[in-house]
Amino acid sequence: MPDLQPPPTPLLPNAQLPTLTSQRVARYEEKVGALRLIADSVAQQRQLASRTLIMHPLNISLTLLVLAALAQYMSLAIFFTTSAGVIMAMLVAVRGATGEYLVAAEKIGWKWLDVSVEDEDENKVVKGDETVILITKWGEEIIAVVVVKVLKKEKRGLVRAWTTGLRYRGKGVGKALLEQGVDVALGKGCREIVFDEKHANSTRVLPAFFNRTFDRRERRARKTLAAIVAARKGEKKLA
Fold first, then answer.
1. Among 79, 143, 205, 233, which lies 20 to 30 A Cα-Cα from 64?
2. Pseudo-torsion of CA 176, 170, 213, 112, nearest 10°?
3. pLDDT tens-digit map of 151-169
4. What pTM does this model have?
5. How far, in Å, CA of 55 to CA of 52, rounded?
6. Do residues 182 and 194 touch, judged by C-beta distance below 8 A?
7. Is the Cβ–Cβ distance between 181 and 149 less than 8 Å?
8. Residue 93: half-sphere exposure toward Cβ, Cα within 13 Å
9. Full DSSP string of 154-187
């Protein structure tokens, strides 16, 4: 009779899941990964801008008006061919109109990270200022980044970048990291913490009329930051 072996112990459902950790960047590779995630978030704005242009009621109406005008003077076969050309031209125009986001994404690098917020054009670093980069990692993957510029002389903290990877948005990961960024800035003596007016995702390449979605996101982000700062200051007073 063969020996009976006990069945293997089943693994817990989350036994093989990576660990979620948040920390200040400590290695060169982490800094590169953080900058890449920020640059990706800027480039992704092009997709939103393109979708806004294509789906905007004004542009849809103008396109239909042009096609309706062409239909009156063409045979059916020529109309379909011409319509395809009109739509293709529209898509090319959209691509050109939103291309500046790729240019902005390419500027997210060492120079962008190290320049002074106050004197960005001259690329001068103000003595005593400090750039703090915090990241959240899912295993070895960087999934969220916040960059805070601490202006020690003014006792201000400027959030220069705050983003979360697409797959991890809406899960509270980014907000939790922003809270840590606020804690670090407060710990370094900042009395005011706000978004930098030229933060990484502040670029607008379309006319103001088409930027409502971007502006709505901007207001929501600023409101979230203000609420976190108020809550943290309240906790500090109670302590």
1. 205
2. 40
3. 999 999 999 999 999 999 9
4. 0.81
5. 5
6. no
7. no
8. 11
9. TTEEEEEEEEE-GGGTTSSHHHHHHHHHHHHHHH
